[in-house]
């Protein structure tokens, strides 16, 4: 007397008799196209209610001035960009920073899948506090800095450095789920993608 399980297995074995097992070969991973990555990055950053502008290296100075629209900005000492009317951060206090409208930094990496910008606070990005206190953060991301996903970003970052991960303007929701922006950082994030 056979069980139902034994009968099912007998039928499966009979059906497979003479069939050679196929070896599944996983497809080779496709290296993402740089253009696709940058387009996905822009789309995801915009999903977070951040503004995104693309420009060439020659247009960068003028575009940053246009985005700032006369607002006074703090810049890190290694920014490598001439921002008219800016204050270079050489240890500004939080009270001094509170009186400044904007900050302009570069990024360490941009993550296409999540629309996240990572700062590792090198000289072109400055101290963490300057990216958190002013109400407008203008962040410059070179298209060559955009990677596909978080593991790709982690591979490029030094874990011993302080890291700030930015996914859109600072926002939270109150108990009634009303979105409030600018509570824990800049109310407005403007990302400039340079290609």
Automatic annotation (TrEMBL):
SUPFAM superfamilies: NagB/RpiA/CoA transferase-like. This is LUD domain-containing protein. InterPro entries: FTHF_cligase-like_sf, LUD_dom, NagB/RpiA_transferase-like. Residues 98-194 form the LUD domain. It holds the Pfam family LUD_dom. PANTHER family: LACTATE UTILIZATION PROTEIN C (PTHR43682). Signal peptide: none annotated. It comes from the Bacteria.
């Amino acid at each position: 007397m056979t069980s139902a399980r034994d009968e099912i297995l007998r039928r499966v074995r009979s059906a497979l008799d003479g069939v050679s097992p196929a070896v599944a070969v996983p497809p080779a991973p496709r290296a993402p196209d740089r253009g696709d990555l940058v387009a996905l990055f822009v789309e995801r950053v915009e999903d977070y209610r951040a503004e995104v502008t693309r420009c060439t290296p020659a247009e960068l100075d003028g575009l940053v001035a246009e985005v700032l629209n006369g607002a006074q900005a703090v810049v890190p000492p290694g920014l490598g960009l001439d921002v008219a009317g800016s204050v270079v951060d050489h240890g500004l206090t939080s009270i001094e920073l509170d009186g400044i409208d904007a900050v302009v930094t570069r990024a360490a990496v941009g993550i296409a899948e999540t629309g996240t910008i990572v700062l590792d606070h090198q000289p072109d990005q400055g101290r963490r506090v300057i990216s958190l206190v002013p109400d407008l953060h203008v962040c410059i991301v070179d298209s060559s800095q955009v990677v596909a996903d978080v593991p790709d970003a982690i591979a490029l970052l030094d874990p011993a450095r302080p890291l700030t991960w930015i996914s859109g303007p600072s926002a939270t929701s109150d108990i009634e789920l009303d979105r409030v922006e600018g509570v824990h950082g800049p109310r407005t994030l403007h990302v400039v993608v340079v290609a």
